[in-house]
Queue: 3 jobs
Job 1
Amino acid sequence: MSSWLFRHLSFGRQKNEGFKKAFTLVELLLTIAIVGTLAAIAVPTYTDYIRKNNNSTAIVAIRNIESQIEGFKALSGSPPATLAAANIVAPIDPWGRPYIYVVPGDRWDKQDKPLNKDYDLLSMGNDGKTDVKLWKTDAFDDIIRCNGGAYVGLASEY
């Protein structure tokens, strides 16, 4: 009895009974449902991983640019007017846009205090939009440098 049940549930009817081995419609639908469920779990996880990786890459790049600017400041006494003036070649951010460098700083935190007294350095983040005020939605995903370099990270977490 168990071999009859196995034959009919696993492969349909056997070849010697006049049918080819094949998956049943129920088996195919079950397989599609399982693959769909796994994809529904995997895609958001992968997307979150990519977002975090891009943010980390931007933070590291901002720290590298910042160290080059600080080296220039140590020699000249003030930050450069532009990155090119200090011979700093800034990489492109993970979203394909240049980093923004502004002297003197012109961005404001949630209490309307300037983020930096010397200069601002940031990436516009995934959406490619920014605002000088951190509480505006266009600035939420920006990767920013604040408090003279004490904080580099997401504007929404500052």
Job 2
Amino acid sequence: MGRARTDVNMDMALELLGNGFTLKETAEQCGTNPMTLKSRIEELNKEESALLAYDKRHFLDLIRTKERLIAHMTEDKMLAAPLSSLAQAYGIVAKFDQLVQGRPTEIVGMMGYLMQIEKMEREGKIVDGEIVDGESEEVSEESIDQ
């Protein structure tokens, strides 16, 4: 049976190391020994590598899915499809492009504000420019300017 695992405040340790403290000084501040701290840092590095590998696989999955969608969009299918379906497919492909490029997919600023108003009108929450259900969100000028 091995020793009990020592708890180390890794947030504090990483901050100290980032501020130029040595491994020994950081271990003393965290109440542990340098070998334990080094071991915890190596564990974090392994976890980070696994997360980065997942991100790469996820990125490739997005590209493959987009390619598959596009490959199945034949001229005949596009002519036979309702316009709403084509618009939806275009939106999906555009969203894939944004994700692959690392750009945010949510719409903010004036366009987001106008889309929210349009959505509320479609849902019947706004009639003739008036909110009918009595519930509304405060919209500041700052959120519109974003």
Job 3
Amino acid sequence: MPRVLVQTFSVPPDAIDVNGHVNNLAYLRWMQEVAIQHSTEQGWPVERYQAAGTGWVVRSHFIEYLLPAFEGETLSLLTWVTGFRQYSSPRRYLFWRPRDRQVVARAETMWVFVNARSGRPQRVPPDLRQAFEVVPEDEDVLALFTARGGSAD
């Protein structure tokens, strides 16, 4: 089970905006997709949350765009959980371009654990907390990732 999930992909044409670079909505979509994939690989697929009548909703997103990314470029998207609070969990993301070894964007989402029926926050259960190894520093994640030639584990 990966403490840091890495997804490498080529930027598709439909991710490009009128300015010729990756649209901000594409970054958000990729962040959500990789968070779901990471949770699934930790033993918590969407179906498990649904069966328990729970799930995660976004309280906030923060994205810092550092460099533009373009159609056809290869990007590696890294994601990890930086901690757990009573009802929430911050998750970080790095978009890294292997070609020039640059961070294109960094982001954080505050996810809130909720009761699916009421939509109200619910305590994050111990077995869910234990499924994820907390990784607090993104600089350490990138250093580990690049030192291993593109593998964060």
